[in-house]
Amino acid sequence: MLWLLLLQVLASSLWVGHSEVMTSFQHCPQFFYEGTSPSDALNPQNPAWICQCYNSSYHYATLYDRDRRIPVYSAYIYEPISERIHDLSWYLEPQLIGDNDLKDMETELVLVEYYNFTLDQIKASQAVLEDYNQLLGLERGYLNPSGHHDSRDSRKATFTLTNVVPQDSSLYIGQWKHYEFTRMPEKSKGCTTTYVITGAVPGNTYVAQGRINRPSHIWTAACCLVGTHPTKAWGAIAENDHDQIRTLSLGELEARLTEIYEWETVTLFSKACPRK
Ligand SMILES: *[C@@H]1O[C@H](CO)[C@@H](O)[C@H](O)[C@H]1NC(C)=O
Ligand SMILES: *[C@@H]1O[C@H](CO)[C@@H](O)[C@H](O)[C@H]1NC(C)=O
């Protein structure tokens, strides 16, 4: 009897493994220090675990909220360059459209003209270009910015709407940009590997005719390894309606997020990353 049960469990897990619906970051644990992703407290009701694939390889990981049509967080390894690129191609995520085997992100044009998806099918569980084209006082705020990557493909892979939230314009060009491109290089000096997780807390308001949630806060956290040892960590958080950012310890950021997420314990990194 036990064997029969085991066989059944095995068969059903094989079946799940065969379909393309992911329930964890099983194909891209490398973007999380020690393979540890943030605690479930952050999970929305209808999540999608996306291993961000461009040109047939994975570049970072995103937990996506299909109902609010914004990412919860993107996780990546910091590999800065000084130059910034502005790409004209924006990508969408085929895995959010339901039954298909497409792994690479694709442009809206390719999804519609080549793969024959209708715009309505695509729009059902993700943001599309038109959603972001008429925002007032808000920018496409990248959770994982292209300037934090040194390879062409990794930079291109950040231009997907599953990596973007509506961000207050003054914050976007002000202190958030300053943190990303001035504070980050300073803070990560001497780190061999820096793991980063950047996220958005869902807010109470929506934009784009009610399709896209406007986050209340945007936060970021980093864990720095010297050699293979985590030696320091830090965080930052900003309210998404004015140009101010607060830097804090990883422990303080987790405590603040725990409060915001109504006291469900939020942990962002493996226990080994220093909290103070
Ligand atoms: C795709 O990746 C391959 C192997 O890494 C590389 O040689 C090629 O230039 C890439 N193609 C594009 C279009 O970026
Ligand atoms: C899309 O539709 C066209 C015309 O019906 C067809 O020729 C083509 O094979 C379809 N493409 C895919 C990827 O199914």
Q: What is the first-to-last residue Cα distance? A: 52 Å
The counted number of beta strands is 13
| Class by SSE composition | alpha+beta
> What is the typical, i.e. mean, pLDDT?
91
How many strands, what sense, and barrel or not for the largest sheet? 7 strands, antiparallel
Strand neighbour order, sheet with most strands: 1-2-3-8-11-12-13
| Helix amount | 10-25%
Ranges where pLDDT stays below 50 over 5 or more residues in a row are: 1-20
Bound molecules: 2-acetamido-2-deoxy-beta-D-glucopyranose
State the shape: globular
What is the rounded Rg?
19 Å
The sequence of SSEs as H and E is HEEEEEHHHEHEHHEEEEEEH
Helix tally equals 8
Could you give the topology of this structure?
Elements lengths: L1 H17 L28 E8 L2 E9 L4 E8 L13 E2 L13 E2 H7 L4 H5 L5 H5 L4 E5 L9 H5 L7 E5 H5 L1 H13 L5 E9 L3 E3 L4 E3 L2 E10 L2 E11 L6 E3 L1 H11 L16
Antiparallel strand pairs: 1-2, 2-3, 3-8, 4-5, 6-7, 8-11, 9-10, 11-12, 12-13
The structure holds 2-acetamido-2-deoxy-beta-D-glucopyranose (NAG) (2 copies).
One 2-acetamido-2-deoxy-beta-D-glucopyranose (NAG) binds next to loops.
